[in-house]
Amino acid sequence: MYEDLALYINGEFITGGGRESQDIINPSTLEVLGKLPHATEQDLDNALEAAQKAFESWRHSSPMERSEILRKVAQMSRDQADEIGRNITLDQGKPLYEAIGEVKSCADHADWHAEECRRIYGRIIPPRQPNVRQMVIREPIGVCAAFTPWNFPYNQAIRKICATIGAGCTIIIKGPEDSPSAVMAIARMFHEAGLPKGVLNVVWGVPAEISDKLIRSPIVRKVSFTGSVPVGKQLAALAGAHMKPITMELGGHSPVIVFEDADVERAAKMLARFKIRNAGQVCISPTRFYIHQDIFEQFKDTFTQTLADIKVDDGLKEGTDMGPLAHERRLTSMQQFVDDATQKGAKVLLGGEGRDDQKGYFYMPTVLIDVPKEARVMTEEPFGPIAPLVPFTDHQEVIQEANSLPYGLSSYVFTNNLQTAHMASNEIQAGMVNINHFGSALPEAPFGGVKDSGIGSEGGQETFDGYLVTKYVTQV
Which fold has domain 7-250+452-475? Predict the structure, then answer.
């Protein structure tokens, strides 16, 4: 059964009441899965009041209590991964094995925060006078407002929820209205794990209206957002106007550099498979492929053939490698990227079109060559299964190209030369540099970008930094 959709405010699941609602659509079949209620202004006021009231006690809760609840949710995530994953495939579209894998990996995130929240330490500063004691204390910042995207609905929500709860804060989260089942499952599990009412609240509605209401409220003391650069800048400006700290994980345009001494076959096959993960709707998806001229033909042939063998279909069907795009508007966007590139001289080696034999939002894996640097696909994040391949010869010039955009989230380097790997890791301007493999988004590692790609990190030992304030106490 598809997840029951509701608001979750002050420990209660709320539906009906004449609230506006929206249909939730399966992007593979266009079937209506359910109706999602939108929060009224009174609902938002109730959520704010509940979160503030809960914070007064939760901020003093034992780290052991927080850890126990997070561990329970981690185990429930593992136990219910098949069911939750199926619902993610239904409303988001990704293949079932990817959806189940997302849920299971998030159990590790909950476990990581369960451990780390027991280690939020302060420190003693040696005094200049023997009768003085100087202490530094880390305290929870307060009520947090979080906004999460549709492409990884479970992953992006549970990261913020676990960090908030583990730090001793309370949270109001607006999840993705297009793929809401994952956030509902998280709310249900925290409810069953015994989280006190008001610590977690889930609301839905028109994104701009909810974000404006929550961020302007004096109750909210911290804002966390994962999504596009333009929206992130708007929310950051609003939060800044009210002196509220932010964590922003925004878009990228991840460069891939395959040097002449790389294992070409391995790199091409790995990158092709990684490219079609979630139909390319991944903020760290490889999106600009710079291939050394000496190996360009070999890479191009292997990469294109690997993508040609990809099975594109309903994510619930056995053997599906790539599902549909999440929205109809994504189909239009993909075609605009391809049309712009071809009008400027690019050639389509593979794909470049949707599927007429499917009524869902399917777009085929696409490979472009002879792509000029002024093409939109080289300057704007496509967020879909499009891969432009560009040859290079000079190492320094390709690094300059990789750094030429205002984004700096993730990057990928393939080389068997230690000096080249060291140079690239030093010179590439990105929050994450992956060399010869894909190693980002682990619970124990920081995840975040630089430049327009964001502010702050999630995960790793930095995971609680955005949810704590530092207090200095000096006493005679």
Answer: Aldehyde Dehydrogenase; Chain A, domain 1 (3.40.605)
